[in-house]
User: Fold cysteine-S-conjugate beta-lyase from Xenorhabdus ehlersii.
Amino acid sequence: MESPDFNQIIDRHNSGSVKWDFLNRYLHLNETDLLPMWVSDFDFQCPKEVLQALSSRIDHGIFGYSERDDLYYQAAIDWFSRRHKLTLHRDWFTSIEGVIPGLALLIQMLSKPGEGVIVQGPYYSSFAKVITMNGRAVIENPLLEDIEGYKIDYDHLEHILEQHRPPLLLLCNPHNPTGRCWDRDELLQLLILCKRYGTTVISDEIWADLILPWGKFTSILHLGNEWHSHVIAATSASKTFGLASLRISNFIIPDRTFRQAFNDRLNAHGLDVFNSLSMTAATAAYQYGDTWLDKLQDYLAENRDWFEQALASSVPWCRMTKAEGTYLAWLDCRNLGLDDNTLQQLLIQKAKIAVSMGYSFGDKGKGFIRINLGCPRQYLEKAISGLAQLTT
Ligand SMILES: Cc1ncc(COP(=O)(O)O)c(C=O)c1O
Assistant:
């Protein structure tokens, strides 16, 4: 198989892309000359092996009802064993077309209307959406920020656990938007506290495969069997291989009762039928995607290094948060001393880039922006020249 060329520019306009075609609908931006660096999907083609598998499946030509087969689950189990030294049992797996829909079902299943769900701010905005639109409340445990990066505030966590007794904590690991990978000790401390107050931890690990060379991913499931009745992990081939619109995810639920309840909810919503193309794509990705992913990770690490250096020399007011995973750059713009609306206007009018504004990640995001580095280097060059123009 030929080597992937991540520098290749592929026009994504008119492909139904949220990131490229729907800035108006989602961000209310009419400008047509903006470089989209917001939604977290990358601008690379997925591995050739995946395209070939999809092409053969399409040639077959029949798209009747389909089910996740053993080949898919085995490919996923082997992937986690190979890439993450994580032993998963077939029984624990259940699948749904997307992480966010699965989180919604779990929130409905494991909490009552009006109850709270803890998130670590700055938090991914879809977490807040899925919590509040299901009639639950967001309880924020803001991360502590220091020169080393972001840390979990355990004192505050204990305080809110005691005060609200929330049934759920929604963890993001690696963390969107900061790129932190929580280590074993951090996870253990969190689990000890949550268990003490009867709070189940749902760990959204959709970014688990996109780790930087200096980072290390630890799944909540690495912590061992003793925690299995208190944890659920969500993963997906979608973020790793750029398959988000095909809709697929794994919910790994070691606890039998939780798993049964989740499967019942899938049935209750008629979500027990699956898209055959997503399964074909994800199976091929898990089976044959290692080399492609290794190269992607190298490219993303180079992109990050390049961007950080370019910021330091051309955009001195902007500080990039140290990340261990993801292709997201969480940029501190507070040195500019601007309010978020003014910052947003300048990003559009002068820098000509569409970013995710930090305030959409809650109060802890004010004064920050999130930029997607999952793109050909040329786009980063454009973004840097735009940002350099912002203060002129
Ligand atoms: C932490 C996190 N969870 C879930 C999702 C989306 O998952 P899905 O598209 O499978 O619903 C994203 C996408 O950016 C994400 O960052």
